[in-house]
Amino acid sequence: MLKRIKLRTLFIGGCITLFFLVLVARVFWVQVLNGEYWQEKAAAQWAHSATIKAVRGEIEDRNGNVLASDVPAYTVVVNPEVIAEQGIGQEVIDGLHALLGKPVDELKKLVEAKDEKSGKYLKNREIRNEGWKINKELKDKVVAFYEELGKKHDIRETGVGVVTEQKRYYPKDTLAAHILGYTDRDGKAIMGLEKYFDKQLKGTDGKLSYQSDGKGIKLPNSQDTYQPVVNGSNFKLTIDSTIQHYIEAAMQKAYDKYRPKSISVIAADPNTMEILGLANMPTFNPNKFWDPNQDAAGFYNHAIKSRYEPGSTFKIVTLAGAVEEKLFDPNAKFQSGSIRIKGYSKALHDINRVGWGTISFLEGVKRSSNVAFVKLGYEMLGQERLLQYINDFGFNEKTGIDLPGETIGIVNPDPSIAAENATLAYGHGKVLVTPIQQLTAVAAIANGGKLMVPHVVKEITDPNTGKKTVTQPEVVRQVISKESARETGSYLEQVVADQVKGTGRHAYIEGYRVAGKTGTAIKVRGTDYDRNKVLSSFIGYAPVNDPKIAVIVIIDEPKGEDGGNGGGAVAAPVFQEIVSQALPYMGVPKASTETADSTSKTVKAPAPAQRSAPDLTGKTMQAARQLLIDQGFDFEAVGEGTTVVSQYPEKGTPLASGQRIYLLSQQGDKPVIPDLKGQSLRDALEVLSLLKVGIAVEGEGYVSEQAQGLKNGKTLVTLKLNPVNEYGENIPVPAVEEEKPEE
């Protein structure tokens, strides 16, 4: 008996010992031999990471109006498992169908979704696309629906919910859609500025990694890593929402009236080439880019992508070249109607094939005579010099505008084919241009001969550092001289001002001096021109003496009774409507104009290039202000009184274009010093002398800074001067290489 007990004890002890040895061996295997593997497995379970989503940068117009920003969005989700448990599937399907408009059969698949392998109901399904990133108004209706469903069945979980996310929102809908572009629901940038500056706008997501136990409590020795979020940069554009609205409203009227294939309009400040507005029709709503009812053609940005035969608006280049080369004599005569080119059997005709008899070249410009421009461009300039001016005005290169997809124009006449070079002078044949190229070229006429780079971004601000990057005006080259640009502008002004002969008379704006040119390009079908299909255009700027805005209008294949009448009748009124609203909005005063003949109301004479200062001394400040506003003078009132006690310049003094008049009234204890920046030293000294203040001057040139202080109890104004280049202050112009003499 005792022996049996001992054997049993030994057996049990041996089993325990063997088990212990096996356990020790297993522990050794796990912790020593495979320790590294299990350490990694454990670390993976302890490790947790979170993504900190970067905020996409805002896009604003030049005045701070938000054009694009991230806003909360809501996605509707359903839980098939809970819905099945509660037995409310059909009610959920019917309710969400009524709210979201999603087809019943598609909702049924989502609500009753099961795992293919296990056959169990799934837990969470998003309702795309109808319930994906919806707005707050619709989200509130969905919440009200499932809360009411819960009360009806006395249940807490209905299997319907809403997840909060972010989406891109464009508060002004279609306004400036082709500039902004859009991002899709996944946040991917598709077109426009959104795509061009996507990297800067989207920023970089942040990350946080840490270690915790099974309950989610952070471990004491957690090895944390943190990558800070870098939010996207904020963009301020050169676009003015109000001017953009004027553009799109005028376009819509023309689009409804003429039912064309498309309309494109671009407006810019010709002095800086800041784009003030850009639009195409048809257009699209970036908030509803997914809507199948939107016209696919509306997503195409014709303003920078489409090439077309320009027609007579291209004559501006020929005219500018002839003026620069001293070849244009406005009073010289020629026979209009038709002209024959050596080496070409057919005659080239004016739009009025019989012509207007023997007329002056100035009248030829007003009437847009093709014959006049063949003589100017082909016979006088010659094909080599004409092509050189075309290249100098940028028609064989991209403008460099900061928008994606810009197309380059093509001007490639065969040097051996006379007709191709002759028709080039009036914008037909081997010449294709883009709207932005043409606007950039005419802006060079307006700003004194500088070809500049157009841009839509005014400044970029990094919200992480506060650093601000401002886009500076960029001059490509000086194309023609200031004098030639001014002279060319005076001829283009008469195209609009002459209400009898001027093809641009429908662009005339009472109180403002407007320069412009019409264009009517007959489109090619096969190998011949189809006179039933035209491209009507108008390009111009205002005011001529101090240009603030340049606009191009292009209407492709206008229809209806007036559709075939050309750019003067179809496109010029669109220009007129836009600019007549934009100039007063921009604070540009009207200039007084008189008719050339007091008995006639049809021929408007342009305002004189140089005027004299009116007599304002002794008038009330209110009366003097009104007189200057009505007559289009630039002025500044100085002082606190109600009567003008003195003025500068004095009455009768000839004024340079844009020169300011200062009105001085009774001063208080401390004289009010006007803003003199940009004024010549002479003008600044005259004004300050009238104010009887002390003056200190540093440097030479024009006033760049001013400071006010006291010296011996008397007001002292310190003026800092800087020279300006001949093309305009703070706008660098590339140096022109000197031509080497021919050997």
From TrEMBL:
GO terms for molecular function: penicillin binding; transferase activity. It is found in: Membrane. Residues 607-666 form the PASTA domain. It comes from the Bacteria. CDD domains: PASTA_Pbp2x-like_1. Residues 590-617 are annotated as: Disordered. GO terms for cellular component: plasma membrane. GO terms for biological process: cell wall organization. Its main location: membrane. The keyword Membrane applies. Residues 592-602 have a biased composition (Polar residues). Gene3D superfamilies: 3.30.10.20, 3.30.450.330, DD-peptidase/beta-lactamase superfamily, Penicillin-binding protein 2a (Domain 2). The chain crosses the membrane at residues 7-29. InterPro entries: Beta-lactam/transpept, Beta-lactam/transpept-like, PASTA_dom, PBP_dimer, PBP_dimer_sf, PCN-bd_Tpept. Keywords: Membrane, Transferase, Transmembrane, Transmembrane helix. PROSITE patterns: PASTA. Belongs to the transpeptidase family. This is Peptidoglycan glycosyltransferase.
